[in-house]
């Protein structure tokens, strides 16, 4: 039995202002689940008939979610900022939450699922750049993300962290 889609309609491709701004689709009708994963939501997605692996809807900081559309997707569908696309989204059962994650120096740690999910919205080399860091450097980035209490601030830091690895050299 196929679940009902969260949405299936035409949307405008928009772009965050500034250098390196993400291209995205605003989804005001899909509500954030603020109690989990910083308000992010994993979905199965299809854009203009092109099926994607599981993607993560991200919070914009104003209570709405957005669907990031990276360069590889835009190239495949032949669309860019200002174009309309048909987006179809289906819910994904979220993974079990991680508990007892510690980032203290010298202690083994797991990268939280929400961080991995965010990296999966980008080309694979972006996550690989993060994984190539020494453990202490990975830990420093994660401590920086988690040292803020507000979910919107954490989501913003996750975006900044990913942006750093998107634009760094291999």
TrEMBL record:
<protein>
    <submittedName>
        <fullName>DUF1905 domain-containing protein</fullName>
    </submittedName>
</protein>
<dbReference type="InterPro" id="IPR015018">
    <property type="entry name" value="DUF1905"/>
</dbReference>
<dbReference type="Pfam" id="PF08922">
    <property type="entry name" value="DUF1905"/>
</dbReference>
<dbReference type="Pfam" id="PF13376">
    <property type="entry name" value="OmdA"/>
</dbReference>
<dbReference type="InterPro" id="IPR037079">
    <property type="entry name" value="AF2212/PG0164-like_sf"/>
</dbReference>
